[in-house]
Amino acid sequence: MLPNTKNNIFSVEQVRKDFPILQRSIHSKALVYFDNGATTQKPQQVIDTLTQYYSFQNANIHRGVHSLSQEITTLYEAARVQVQKHLNAAHAHEIIFTQGTTDSINLVAYSYGKKYIKSGDEIMITTMEHHSNIIPWQQVCEDRGAVLKVIPVNAIGELDLEAFEQLLSQKTKIIAVTHVSNTLGTINPIKYIIEKAHQNNIPVLVDGAQATPHLKVDVADLNADFYCFSSHKMYGPTGVGILYGKEKWLEEMPPYQTGGGVIETVSFERTKFASLPLKFEAGTPHIAGGIGTATAIDYLNNLGMDAVARYENELLQYATIQLLAIEGVKIIGTASKKASVISFVVNGLHPYDIGMILDQQGVAVRTGHHCTQPLLEYFKVPGTVRVSFSFYNTKAEIDIFVLALNKALKMLL
């Protein structure tokens, strides 16, 4: 059964029953899981989908005429359609299954770069990008002789849009930007960035890994050229990613990987590649993960993304007030539009030490640079403590976290 909602409102107490891991204890304390930005927990419905596949439906897809293969092929392609509808994409063949957001970005960087980037061209990213949306573009620049341009951020963790417009030029061939910062929680003005880019005939790739768990994403409304995310960050299985790409780009781009599944015909003289989406899906995919992703999307849609966003914003505001009341706490990233993520430092204390003491009290947080070293260098901090909330978290858990944090600070200061 999926959670039932009325008037786009859900009961967090009822929802928590769907997540078995939330019943766990850590160091004899009830688990308080505030590391949702790294990965989200899985509802029983998703777990049951994976169990059902491996127990009773296990077969390979697309190649078999027997009943099991036909059955699971139908389910897998239905999952693709489910993702298409969730994103409001025009066509199911614009949905490419990958191994994750990182894999999706690498696919576009390699394939688009090979087709369209030449010496002297420019690729634009932002200061707040995850390493996964920096390094692939650095590699393209090195391979093709292109130049990497970086949109700066300001003191509160928002993009400098004036600088962005000044960086745009005829040499700009693609822009890659995160929808939501995994470190700051900043929700970037993606639609505005895309509009400005398109005025200059520049395509835009959006890293949506941190957006899809929190926001309703409509790629048609955004007019995004590429949009990618990971299933495991939105309550689905690990090892599965989604790349949405406009048909016109995907048709022109060469395959990222080759082998079984991406071909129409093969001879020793030449290979003719398959049409979309199979052209970009070499080898046997994570079949259980694909259908598990569809179940996770069903779960979120039954909750209602608007209801999720409202509730998580309540948690964000509540936790922000509580943290700012603690002497010595400084929040890194105070943008006017944020998802439910807070990064903070305390009086020069090492984030790792804080995180270890919190763990002893059952509170799971993230510590470190969060794969955004250039961003934290800008803020002149080596790392932060990051708390990231989900709709299954509660204000009572925030109270437990604050008490645990105060205890940690008394021990360390």
Record keyword descriptors for this entry.
alpha/beta; four-stranded antiparallel beta sheet; 2 domains; Aspartate Aminotransferase, domain 2; 413 residues; Aspartate Aminotransferase, domain 1; seven-stranded mixed beta sheet
Largest sheet: 7 strands, mixed
> Biggest sheet: strands side by side, in what order?
4-10-9-8-7-5-6
- Please report the first level of CATH classification, the CATH class of the largest domain: Alpha Beta
Helical element count?
14
Number of domains: 2
What does the overall shape look like?
globular
- Classify the secondary structure makeup into a structural class: alpha/beta
The CA-CA distance between the termini, in Å, is 49 Å
Q: Tell me what the CATH architecture of the largest domain is.
A: 3-Layer(aba) Sandwich
Report the sheet-strand fraction.
15-25%
Q: Write down the Rg.
A: 22 Å
How many β-strands, per DSSP?
17
Average residue-wise pLDDT: 96
- Oligomeric grouping of the chains: single chain
Uncertain segments are: none
Q: Percent range for helical residues? A: 25-40%
What fold name stands as the CATH topology of the largest domain?
A: Aspartate Aminotransferase, domain 2
Structure explained in plain terms:
By secondary structure, this protein is an alpha/beta fold. It folds into 2 domains: 12-42 and 304-408, Aspartate Aminotransferase, domain 1, CATH 3.90.1150.10; 48-301, 3-Layer(aba) Sandwich (Aspartate Aminotransferase, domain 2), CATH 3.40.640. It is 40% helix and 16% strand. The protein has helices at residues 12-16, 44-57, 67-87, 101-116, 135-144, 161-167, 190-199, 219-222, 247-252, 287-303, 305-324, 351-360, 373-378, 395-412; strands at 25-26, 29-30, 32-33, 95-98, 122-126, 147-151, 172-178, 204-207, 226-230, 241-245, 263-266, 271-273, 329-332, 341-346, 363-364, 366-368, 384-388. The strands form 5 sheets. The chain has a 7-stranded mixed beta sheet, with helices on both faces. A 4-stranded antiparallel beta sheet has the order 13-14-17-16, with helices on one face. β5 (122-126), α5 and β6 (147-151) form a beta-alpha-beta unit. α2 (44-57) runs antiparallel to α10 (287-303). It starts with 11 loop residues before the first helix and ends with a helix.
